[in-house]
Design goal:
The chain has a seven-stranded mixed barrel with strand order 1-2-6-5-4-3-7. Strands 8-9 form a two-stranded parallel ribbon. Helix 14 runs parallel beside helix 16. With 558 residues, the protein is α/β, with parallel strands linked by helices. It has 18 helices and 13 strands. The two termini are 41 Å apart. It is elongated, with a radius of gyration of 30 Å. A hairpin with a 2-residue loop joins strand 1 and strand 2.
């Protein structure tokens, strides 16, 4: 299970915010006393669409399907002064548009399985003076059912340029997840370090003890693993891009399993306070698994049930609430389970993913046929996809949009990677604070920096109105803040290399024990250990032992 969680947390560094592009438009159909909008995709290079229905003349709507209009028209009299719908295929968008234009048509809709941008070359664009758009087969069928005496017009209403309030909710969830997950990771690591130091003091360095069974599994990341993770991320992203319709179901199943584990891990501390269900299920003598309490087993079943319900109802409009709850629990559990050992590894990981995010958001549009970035296309599922990868926080837009007819309820998205990657740095900052007793200065500063970086990302979204690579703003804010504080406190070298158990540090209130020319540290010993169990004289250090944790030795600066 842990292997799935580790790979899942780092394979999907995807950030995208849904937005209406310049190529999205509407066809307003007038039938009787009613008007209905249907979604189209148009190319302004052919002809710009009006942004309002005021003073716009409606044209008779004619559905010529299954005609494709490649060359001469079979019924040219039906095309004159009409908005015509034809089937896609057999010739180019330009050929179809030219045929309608030559027969005095007012515009053309090309019916297709999915919405695509109609394209041509520069000279062909200049030759077409009527609007050209693509409509889905489903919507074309719906218009046909409205009857024969209908009129229609193409237009592209402008949306008010503002940041939707749903971004506040996304910001709160993301920052809250980083704060809670990072502090929990730092506190857990601090407790484990105290256990290890206690064992070192007893002379048990690497041996298995009974206390080890209570330790939660974790994973320390090194430089080689960073390279492997990045290769896996890129490989999975490209596989999703080319084989999205197949791999997306694998991702959905793995997300359910990982989220169930995350919910179980996050709720376990609360369940352990329940005064019943503590009976441990017996295990066979040959089993190497730890005994499981009844209350823990019940929690696991409830977690799996919750995720199974989301799987069944994932297409419902309200399912985003369950998905966000699963995502927050999943992310908190990952932040607690994965440890970056030092600032050097943090810098390498965040630096590589910083370049990765920029490349796949800003550079790949120059290589794709649709002109859309690989990152955004994978995050949103592309045109016509029935499923979306669930590894994002999603919140519906609170403001009304006329383009809701295109995608139903529109969502703003924030990928888990934009929470987990900076969150791992904040978690390391928290662990470092515990080790050097710095008053949480690194943890607080990097948490604030994460929140500020996310705000900057949203501001960039406001002005640019395109999906933003969040790591472009989060990495400089968090890494830069941590580096500056380390430099100002003259702890940058120690921060860069990290702190190791049994290694003398500059700023932690420790006691030194010399045994066989080896220095061993004992951190945060209880007062009873200091007075009731004195260190044997043959191993005692010449240094005096502090009376309490507040009496620290002078700090040694780099």
């Amino acid at each position: 299970m842990e292997g799935y969680l580790v790979s899942g947390s780092l394979l999907f560094m995807i950030f995208a915010v849904t937005q209406v592009t310049a190529d999205l438009g509407l066809v307003n159909v007038q039938h009787g006393s009613q008007n209905t909008d249907f979604c189209v995709m148009y190319n302004p290079e052919f002809q710009e669409l009006p942004d309002t229905l005021e003073n716009i003349k409606y044209s008779p709507y004619v559905d010529l399907r299954p005609e494709v209009l490649c060359g001469s028209a079979a019924q040219p009299g039906l095309i004159a002064d009409s908005l015509v719908t034809v089937s896609r295929g057999n010739c180019t968008f330009y050929d179809k548009s030219k045929t309608v234009q030559d027969n005095n048509g007012q515009g053309i809709l090309i019916s297709s399985d999915s919405l695509v941008v109609p394209s041509a070359n520069d000279s062909e664009y200049k030759d077409i003076t009527i609007p050209v758009a693509v409509i889905s087969n489903t919507d074309a069928d719906a218009i046909k059912k409205l009857g024969d005496n209908v009129a229609a017009v193409l237009y592209a209403p402008e949306e008010s340029v503002r940041i939707d309030y749903n971004l506040i909710l996304i910001w709160t969830m993301a920052v809250g997840t980083v704060i809670v997950g990072s502090y929990w990771a730092g506190l857990t690591a601090h407790r484990l370090d105290k256990k290890k130091l206690a064992r070192l003091r007893r002379g048990v360095e690497d041996g298995k003890t009974d206390d080890d069974d209570d330790e939660e599994p974790s994973m320390d990341v090194n430089a080689v693993m960073v390279v492997i993770f990045v290769v896996m991320i890129v490989s999975m992203l490209l596989l999703l891009y080319f084989f999205y319709d197949y791999i997306v179901y694998v991702i959905i199943v793995l997300f359910c399993i990982a989220a169930a584990a995350g919910i179980h891990a996050c709720l376990t501390p609360l369940v352990e306070k329940i005064p019943f269900g503590m009976y441990k299920i017996p295990k066979s003598k040959s089993s190497k698994c730890a005994q499981v309490e009844v209350r823990s087993l019940v929690l696991a079943l409830l977690s799996l049930t919750f995720c199974a319900l989301w799987f069944v109802y994932r297409h419902e409009e309200w399912s985003w609430i369950m998905q966000d709850m699963m995502g927050v629990a999943f992310s908190i559990h990952l932040l607690k389970s994965i440890r970056l050992p030092n600032f050097k590894i943090c810098f390498i990981l965040l630096g590589v993913l910083f370049l990765y995010d920029i490349f796949f958001v800003f550079i790949t549009p120059y290589f794709t046929k649709s002109g859309e970035s690989v990152m955004v296309q994978v995050a949103t599922g592309g045109g016509g996809a029935k499923e979306q990868i669930p590894i994002v926080l999603k919140v519906p837009r609170f403001a009304f949009s006329p383009y809701n007819v295109c995608n139903g309820v529109q969502f703003s998205l924030l990928g888990f990677g934009d929470i987990l990657v900076p969150g791992l740095l904040v978690a390391y900052a928290c662990r470092f604070d515990f080790k050097v007793q710095s008053g949480k200065v690194y943890y607080i500063a990097t948490s604030i920096a994460y929140g500020v970086g996310l705000v900057i990302c949203f501001v960039a979204l406001f002005f640019m109105q395109i999906g933003q690579p969040a790591l472009l703003y989060l990495v400089p804010c968090t890494v830069g803040t941590m580096a500056v504080i380390g430099w100002k406190r003259r702890e940058l070298k120690h921060l860069w290399n990290g702190h190791r158990i049994g290694e003398s540090t500059a700023n932690s209130p420790i006691d030194s024990i010399n045994t066989d020319d080896r220095e061993v540290e004992v951190n945060n010993r209880e007062p009873s250990d200091r007075h009731d169990n004195p260190i044997p004289s043959d191993t005692a250090s010449n240094d005096s032992i502090p009376a309490n944790d507040e009496e620290e030795r002078p700090l040694i600066r780099d």
